[in-house]
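Record type: monomer structure entry
Structure origin: computed from sequence
Chain ID: A
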Amino acid sequence: MKPSDANTAPGVATPDLTSCDREPIHILGSVQPFGFLLVVSPDWIVVRVSDNIADWLGQPAEALLGLPFVEVFEIEAVHAIRGKLQSIRGVGQVERIFGLRLLKDGAGFDVALHISDESIVIEAEPSVAGRGDAIDLVRTLVGRLQQTVGFDALCREAVRQMRALTGFERVMVYRFDPDGAGEVVAEAARAGLEPYLGLRYPASDIPRQARALYERNWLRLIADVDAKPSAIVPQLSPEGRPLDLTMSVLRSVSPIHLEYLRNMGVAASLSVSILRGGKLWGLFACHHRVPNHLSFERRSGIELFGQMFSWIMEGREREVEVAYEAHARVMHNRLMSLLSPDRTGFDGLKGLLDELRAIVPCDGIGLSVEGQLTLKGIAPTQEEMVGVVRYLNRIASSRPFASNEFGLLHEPAKDFADSAAGLLVIPISRTPRDYLIFFRREVARTVTWAGNPHKAVTAAPGGLRLNPRTSFAAWREIVRGQSTPWSDADLRIAESLRVTLLEMMLRLSDTADKERKGAHEHQELLIAELNHRVRNILNLIRALMTQSRSEFATVEDFTNVVGGRIQALARAHDQITATSWGPGSLHDLIRLEAGAYLGVKADRVRIDGGDVLLEPQAFSTMALVVHEMMTNSAKYGALADSRGTITVDLTVDDAHLLVDWSEMGGPAVKAPTRRGFGTTIIERSIPYELKGEAEIRYELTGVQARFTVPLRFVSPAPKMEARSVAPADDCPAPSCALSGMVLLVEDNIIIALEGEEMLLRLGAEAVEMASSVKEAFRIISARPPDFAVLDVNLGTETSLPVAERLRALNVPFVFATGYGEGFIIPPALGAVPVVKKPFDIEALRSAFSP
């Protein structure tokens, strides 16, 4: 029996769900009261606030609406917020600032920033002294996770570590089954609490909209179920839209869910997402019987722990799948060796059904060829199979089909569930339709639910209302008509077997030679994919996380650098999967990495030599190496200023592909004094993974490197003319506002790189960047610029001396500042345009216009 509806899963915060006939929504007009929310329009005017803001800022919410942003917070805080917003790219990114003083001589606040529609959402809560460095603590906990053996031990250790990290009385790992139902698979709880381990919850507990929300927003805290939420005023924008709080860290939750928690005796709840392959696999669900607020900084560490657990868990599950698939591969090869030359067509398969049963765990097997049935083991009768084959013919496709409750799809199958409750069907021809079918019999089991899974429904204005239950006593039922589910690994093996059987039939009948060759190549492609999963998923991700953890002092630096490395692997993965996991173009890899990292600078990377294709294993390894070389060049090498270039020369000899990397024209190069994990990737990845060679030299005039890849990973590509990496689209001539050389004075490298890109798009022929007054004076002395953009605050100094020098040389310039209206231009400089951070290309264009 599959319940049609049920109550909320254990302590999981869900979106608003108030009726059975409406879809849940995640746009709520209130926030939890342990912090406040403020929304700023694109022109930096306060347009929305939470009504509890007076508790921290001393001004009522209505008094703040319509005020310029700089009149609400201290100017240094405004500057910090503007600068942080400059680095936000795209919807869904949340930036954090810890210990920020919003008011003069006031207490510090932890601040979260994100973009919602076109508005800037600023959330703040008082800083709370932490219990130690978050990264150091998470690193220690993750190290213990990695020492566990097996999936169950991993989950048990994870809930113990999460309980120590959060201080909650109960922590559970809640896993979703393929049908959407959930089960508590691990639990760590304070002595005396009723155990939830093994309890199941129906799929309706967490609706589809809520799962999509958890895939985007990793963590949700309910610090006090009895706390009164603070409303956002006004509730609607002038266009009549509520505020989308999908990425909010303070968003309040459904009153029904809060009532549910009270019925459980829970006063505080914390939910942390567990993702696999970007999809929601499960949750950490945490309970506390008294209110429990965790600081934003501590929650950031908890979020990182959840992400690390997700990656480790995915690796553990894949280890099991790989072992299973490796065993199936052995049986698969044995099957092929049993084929004899005198067997022709499908008749040869009839004598091999016992060997086929050993490839996929099952209770019985059947072969349907041209209307003739052969059955082995526990299977339906010949008469019952007639209806099964007719049903399969109606839904026939070229891919394997699986169901663990076939009676729901084919009504007569309920009568023979004891022999074939579940089917895995492999089509082995198209016309006529022929099938190899694996059967699994019914496995009747007792399921223990957390209370009666049927929800109580009462009439309410506007529809029906779901009532949270008040009893959580174990409620058991016997589930019948289902077999053991078919796993993803079963389906992959079935697909591989389908391809192999097609190839075998073509070979045994000595026909369709061309199709036989294609099937064999498909089989080899599946083997290459398996090798890629083992080496890259299980080894690379874990190695990146483990080896990178000691390089950085903050969670943000760690996340950004490791995220860049993983993104480089993702880009490589996209390229090789676009060709059905075939070889990938080395030219395209270099162009994509340069374009993704450098933007408009990409035309300074030139590729000489014909293109080659790299096998998936070598392609992923080379992607990491190229990413680290590009990153180091942009930080310290030829791409660190606007004059340097990189030439990548590709040649092939009798045994190797030679990749020569040459940088020139940049700043003077010094050998690194510290070996980080990036250097290890460059020097050791190719020798270790590919048995090739890697050599890097730090010459004064530029970095020189040579990488040698064995030819077994290399194949020729269609001949293409050598060309430079394509730059970003040029600014259309009619709208460009600049020409000549532009001086950009900015002490933040990320903002400087983004500003350079904008200036080049506006028509500048070259951009010289300086991070200090001294460096700016040197550039001006060598060659006065045609225009200049000056960041006012350069850390320990200002750019005002540079402005005075440019004014004396009659060079036009603009100021860029995060101080907004708080920056007063000295009268001696006259009228100077000012662009406020975060600026964009249109703001610069307007400042340049006469």
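Annotation 1: The chain has a mean pLDDT of 79.
Annotation 2: The radius of gyration is 31 Å.
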